[in-house]
Structures are given as structure tokens and as C-alpha cells.
Amino acid sequence: MANIEYMSQEGYDKLVAELHQLESVELPQVREAIAEARDKGDLSENFEYHAAKREQAKLLSRIRFKQRVLEFARVIDTSRLDSDSVGLLSKVEMTNLNNNMHMTYTIVNPHEANLREGKISIKSPIGQALLNKKAGDVVEVRVPAGMMKLRIESIQL
């Protein structure tokens, strides 16, 4: 059996919208470009045709990937989540004890991770280290910059 991907309703809806955009807007544009290039004659030396075919192959690959993710996606019922320990969709407030900086991250599915939005992957080193920990716990995490020592201040859903 393939891996089930648990995600938020927001993440699921965003993925559905991306797939719809690829299938209904971008793919027809690429197919139109292929048809136009094909009408220009000799395909063996037609750069536009080959570029459009490559673009179509990349697009079809992205579409298949997103379809596969959605096939195994399960939206998490947030009412059944526990806010006592860190898990998927937990909003974790913590302090980096190395420099006393405060930070807040939401632990999400890798497909939803976006550092600018304060969303880190459950599969990232920090996400893995925080998993199942409780408020007040101190965790050490190996990150590319070295070791981080984090104290969990609070956990919310």
C-alpha cells in the first residue's frame, strides 16, 4: 500500500486548485503551442516544437505527481487532535536557547511546508525532534548550522 499523506483542509484545497490550474489552463496552452509549432513544417529542426514537447512532458509529470499525492491524501479532522503534545498541524511556540530567540511554527505535511508562512515539514529535522514533545520540554536538534537547543513554550491547534 502507498503512503497516506495527512494534510490540512487548506493544504488539500490548495493542491486541488493547483492541479485544476495545470490541467485546465497550462496543459491546453502547451498543446496549442505544439500545434502551432507543428504547422511550421519540418519537425526535425523545429526548436519551438521540441521545446513545447519538453514543456508538455514536464507539465504531465507535475500533473501525475499531484494526482498521486491527492489520491493518497487524507484531510485531518482537527477536532480529534490532541494539543498536549506536538503533532501534525500543531502550532508550536518555542525559544532557541542558543540565542534566546522566540519562534512559532506550524508542523505540516511536506507538501504544505512554507517557511515564509511559518510552516515547517513534519519530516524536517526540527519537525522530527518536536514530534510528541510537550510544553516545557527541551529538545536538541542537529541542523545544517550545528546543534540547536529548543524549549517548547506552548502548543496550540
Describe the protein's architecture and organization.
With 157 residues, the chain is of the alpha/beta class. The chain contains three helices and seven strands. The strands form two sheets. Strands 5-4-3-7-6 form a five-stranded mixed beta sheet. It has a two-stranded parallel ribbon with strand order 1-2. A hairpin with a 4-residue loop joins strand 3 (91-96) and strand 4. Helix 1 (9-38) packs antiparallel against helix 2. The radius of gyration is 22 Å and the shape is elongated. The protein starts with a strand and ends with a strand. The mean pLDDT is 91.
Biggest sheet: strand arrangement: 5-4-3-7-6
Q: How widely separated are the two ends?
A: 30 Å
Beta-strand content estimate:
25-35%
**Run of helices and strands:** EHHEEEEHEE
Keywords:
five-stranded mixed beta sheet, elongated, 3 helices, 7 strands, alpha/beta, two-stranded parallel ribbon
Outline of this structure?
This protein is α/β, with parallel strands linked by helices and 157 residues long. It contains 3 helices and 7 strands.
Could you give the topology of this structure?
Elements: E1 5-7, H1 9-38, H2 47-71, E2 73-75, E3 91-96, E4 101-108, E5 119-121, H3 125-130, E6 138-143, E7 146-156
Parallel strand pairs: 1-2, 4-5
Antiparallel strand pairs: 3-4, 3-7, 6-7
Helix pairs in contact: 1-2
